[in-house]
């Protein structure tokens, strides 16, 4: 009975309530300021990538990835402030990340290859290439695939991983096209 009366003692309830209320307020502040900081960090990265003429699709993807990762850390910090044991939460997030990574292994390799194609710029839209057993003019370079139009006019969608895992031939433009271009804009083969 003594223990029960201790729980209902107003002094104890007030002390615990003030302590918990302060922790909740601090956690809310961490979430608010953390969210603002995550947006600023992701936006700064986005601006830097745009200034370096990185593909818009890649910029948007990296913005979302950085923002999401920062928000996970911020939520963990806020939960820790309230007093939640986050060790098991971090374990669940890590296991989920591993499971998703294994499930998307093919897509992730195509994504990584797409990033390499965009950053290394061995070829660009308008170039005629031969890669992954396909020959044609590049009409679009996407994150997961590259779109070619072959000599018959057929659109061919080639996974980026297939392109980067083999030899890529970039054909020189016909002589009349090269003569019309200033020397600085011609692609080096």
Q: Can you tell me about this structure?
A:
- By secondary structure, the chain is of the alpha+beta class.
- It folds into 2 domains: 8-89, Orthogonal Bundle (Helix Hairpins); 114-180, SH3 type barrels.
- The chain has 7 helices and 5 strands, in the order αααααββββαβα.
- The chain has helices at residues 2-7, 10-51, 56-82, 87-103, 105-120, 160-164, 175-180, and strands at 128-131, 134-141, 145-149, 155-159, 169-171.
- A 5-stranded antiparallel beta sheet has the order 4-3-2-1-5.
- β2 (134-141) and β3 (145-149) form a beta hairpin.
- α2 (10-51) runs antiparallel to α3 (56-82).
- The longest helix is centred in the first third of the chain and has 42 residues, at 10-51.
- The chain is elongated and about 80 Å long.
- The N and C termini lie far apart (87 Å).
Query: What oligomeric state is this?
Result: single chain
Radius of gyration: 27 Å
Strand residue percentage = 5-15%
Secondary-structure element series: HHHHHEEEEHEH
Query: How many helical elements?
Result: 7
Structural class: alpha+beta
As residue ranges, the low-confidence spans are none
Major sheet, described briefly? 5 strands, antiparallel
Tell me the number of structural domains: 2
Strand order of the largest sheet: 4-3-2-1-5
Number of strands: 5
Q: Give the end-to-end Cα distance, rounded to a whole number of Å.
A: 87 Å
Tell me, rounded to a whole number, the average pLDDT. 84
Tell me what the CATH architecture of the largest domain is.
Answer: Orthogonal Bundle
By CATH reckoning, the class of the largest domain would read Mainly Alpha
Fill in the CATH topology of the largest domain. Answer: Helix Hairpins
Shape: elongated
Task: Specify the helix fraction band.
Answer: 55-70%
């Amino acid at each position: 009975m003594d223990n029960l009366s201790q729980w209902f003692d107003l002094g104890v309830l007030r002390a615990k309530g003030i302590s918990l209320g302060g922790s909740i307020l601090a956690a809310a502040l961490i979430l608010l300021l953390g969210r603002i900081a995550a947006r600023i960090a992701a936006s700064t990265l986005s601006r830097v990538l745009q200034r370096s003429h990185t593909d818009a699709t890649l910029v948007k993807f990296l913005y979302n990835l950085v923002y999401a990762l920062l928000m996970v850390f911020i939520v963990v910090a806020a939960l820790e402030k309230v007093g939640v044991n986050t060790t098991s939460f971090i374990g669940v997030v890590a296991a989920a990340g591993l499971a998703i990574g294994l499930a998307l292994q093919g897509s992730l390799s195509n994504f990584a290859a797409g990033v390499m194609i965009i950053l290394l710029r061995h070829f660009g839209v308008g170039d005629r290439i031969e890669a992954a057993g396909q020959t044609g003019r590049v009409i679009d370079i996407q994150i997961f695939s590259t779109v070619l139009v072959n000599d018959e006019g057929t659109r061919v969608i080639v996974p980026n991983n297939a392109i980067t895992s083999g030899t890529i031939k970039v054909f020189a433009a016909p002589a009349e096209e090269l003569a019309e271009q200033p020397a600085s804009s011609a692609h080096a083969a």
